[in-house]
Design brief:
The complex is a heterodimer of chains A (262) and B (338). Chain A is 72% helix and 2% strand. Chain A has helices spanning 2-20, 22-49, 58-79, 82-89, 96-99, 105-111, 118-132, 144-168, 170-173, 177-185, 199-208, 216-224, 228-256, and strands spanning 52-53, 56-57. The longest helix of chain A has 29 residues, at 228-256. Chain B is an alpha/beta fold and 338 residues long. Chain B folds into two domains: 3-10 and 41-246, Rossmann fold, CATH 3.40.50; 252-321, Alpha-Beta Plaits. Chain B contains twelve helices and 13 strands. Chain B starts with a strand and ends in a 6-residue tail after the last helix. At the A-B interface, helix 1 and helix 5 of A face helix 3, strand 5 and helix 4 of B.
Chain lengths: 262, 338
């Protein structure tokens, strides 16, 4: 409860900061909107050339693509500051501050920033889903909506946990932003059906960096109703295991933290 | 008296990769890293009783900040332990930091982009300070640190002096029992320094806050602390009252004679008269002023005064107290040892 209250305050502070730099915010918002427009146009061009992909129709692929943005957007919106841990906060010794405050360090780092940039992605996500869903004949049950919520939470945890782990590496190496970046970029694979990739890539994005569980697997379940245990259960398990591992690494990292000279 | 801070055999080692100069060296270090263990803090023990202001001094790179960071729970000691306010920082961090305040003079913990008072509003929530107490506390801090004139300005626009006062206020908002100040007066002008010193003094007196203070400004030490711990190259070289320090290092005094006739200075030859080296007695001329520094263990004040008065005409005489700065300079240069 206390953390929820704190989070509201942190977000309020963030919005005040946005207002402090109005021009920056306005230009940023316009830039993001343009990025999303171009991205959508680009998608349209590609998919107008490809009517179907290994048994998936154009509409289904749009759905998977849109679905993949749910977790990505949520993670982006709430935990963007983790990038800074690997790029700057630890290397410059700025992490000292978090260690002298009576709240969880990981929570504090994450809560301090709130990334409205993600709202552009959210817009794309909503447009894609709203456009594709009506033309698809998806099974619908009373538990479909609760399952969406469960998937959204655990798929976001997959993203966030991978970021936490790679950020925590910098407790030992001082900087790890590029590692986070490298790993994060593999999420692009998850926007399309995994069956289009070779065996190696499939294995990697299913079992090693399980981004396939943030998009393709759960999305395919919602499309077809097949394989619920693997597609949904896999997301829950991947999210839980990765998050536990991430907390463990973060915790280990705290005792290896060396600060910086002053 | 009850000990607020206990540090026992604290030791901190860092692994350092040795690189040869240039790009070639950097590449070599990447594939074949040569590692070296650097001991930043080596077996340091001390205690601080409740309500004391302890000066923690030493030259740059002596390990002061590393000790402070271990005491505040930021760094994990390689060996040894510390117990502060009955808690071990590394074991019970969240509960421990609730009752301490920390200021790193070189860094700020304020929210850079927001008006200063927003920082206090956030800290109030982080430390769960009740509304009533928060109001009282802000009024008190306002009075002591004079924050009123800039509390609505964004932190990025504050001057260094304002920022430091704001940072100290931030560390005191939750009424900590122990306050760690790492170079709280660095880079500040005399007036701000004065303001900060009196604030520290006031908080210590009114609330019994235990304070550890590192500084390079020896005036801070002389005005605030009764006791100092001095470290050098990671080891403790002195721990005791400032009066003991003066006593231990010989009573170096300075006498100033204002001469009726400045050039008479050349008539004074203390070294020959007392058969002492330049280290034990040393005179210099500054206009009509003759300044004589000497060790009272080697020659008495009386002898110096009577020799001077019998040799030249003196208009005025001034005896200066032992300067701690002199002693510390000598210690830093390793001219004296314990």
């Amino acid at each position: 409860m206390r953390y929820i209250r704190l989070h509201k305050i942190f977000i309020a502070q963030y919005l005040k900061k946005l207002m402090e730099y109005k021009a920056d915010f306005l230009l940023g918002a316009i830039g993001l909107l343009l990025t999303q427009v171009f991205q959508l146009a680009f998608l349209g061009i590609i998919f107008s050339q490809i009517p179907a992909l290994i048994g998936w129709s154009f509409q289904e692929i749009l759905f998977i693509y849109g679905f993949s943005l749910i977790a990505k957007t949520l993670d982006h919106l709430f935990t963007d500051n983790l990038w800074m841990v690997g790029y700057r906060i630890i290397r410059k010794g700025e992490f000292d501050k978090y260690l002298t405050r009576p709240i969880n360090t990981l929570y504090h780092v994450i809560a301090e920033n709130f990334c409205v940039d993600a709202l552009g992605e959210m817009l794309t996500c909503i447009l894609l889903l709203a456009y594709s869903i009506p033309s698809l004949d998806m099974p619908f049950h009373w538990y479909t909506i609760p399952l969406w919520i469960v998937v959204a939470v655990f798929a976001t945890l997959i993203y966030t946990s991978l970021k936490i782990m790679t950020a925590a590496i910098s407790f030992w190496t001082k900087a790890s932003g590029h590692i986070t970046h490298m790993l994060y970029m593999t999420n692009d694979f998850s926007k399309y059906p995994v069956s289009i990739y070779n065996k190696f890539v499939q294995t990697v994005i299913t079992y090693v960096i399980p981004f396939a569980f943030t998009a393709y697997f759960p999305a395919s379940y919602f499309l077809t109703g097949n394989n619920p245990w693997f597609c949904i259960g896999g997301t829950v398990i991947a999210g839980t295991v990765l998050f536990a591992l991430a907390l463990f690494i973060w915790h280990k990292g705290l005792s290896a933290y060396e600060s910086a000279g002053s | 008296m009850e000990n607020m801070i206990i540090a026992e055999n604290l030791r901190k080692e860092f692994k350092k990769v040795i690189k040869e100069p240039g790009v070639k060296g950097a590449v070599k270090a990447l594939f074949k890293p040569k590692k070296e263990i650097v001991t930043a803090v080596d077996d340091i023990s001390f205690t601080v009783p409740k309500g004391e202001i302890l000066g923690f001094i030493g030259p740059n790179g002596a390990g002061k900040s590393t000790v402070i960071k271990m005491l505040t729970g930021i760094l994990m000691p390689t060996a040894g332990f510390c117990r502060i306010n009955g808690k071990i920082p590394q074991e019970d961090r969240k509960n421990y930091v609730r009752e301490i305040g920390v200021v790193f003079g070189q860094r700020t913990q304020l929210w850079w982009d927001l008006a200063l008072r927003e920082t206090y509003a956030v800290l109030k929530e982080i430390y769960q300070v009740p509304d009533e107490q928060y109001k009282k506390r802000m009024a008190f801090l306002n009075e002591v640190l004079e924050l009123d004139s800039f509390i609505t300005s964004p932190v990025r626009t504050l001057s260094l002096g304002q920022r430091m006062r704001a940072d100290i206020a931030a560390s005191l908002l939750h009424s900590p029992k122990v306050l760690f100040l790492d170079e709280p007066t660095i880079g500040l002008d005399v007036v701000v320094k004065e303001n900060i010193r009196s604030a520290i003094k006031k908080i210590n007196e009114e609330e019994g806050t235990t304070v550890i203070l590192t500084t390079h400004d020896l005036a801070d030490i002389e005005l605030l602390c009764e006791r100092i711990v001095m470290i050098d190259k990671g080891r403790k070289v002195f721990d005791g009252a400032i009066s003991d320090l003066k006593h231990n290092f010989g009573d170096v005094r300075t006498l100033e004679f204002e001469l009726v006739n400045g050039p008479d200075f050349k008539l004074l030859d203390y070294n020959r008269r007392f058969k002492l080296t330049q280290d034990d007695i040393h005179a210099e001329r500054d206009g009509s002023m003759a300044r004589v520094r000497f060790d009272t263990a080697k020659v008495s004040v009386e002898n110096v005064v009577s020799y001077t008065l019998s040799t030249v005409h003196v208009k005025d005489l001034n005896i200066k107290d032992v300067e701690i700065e002199e002693i510390i300079k000598k210690l830093y240069r390793r001219e004296v040892s314990l």
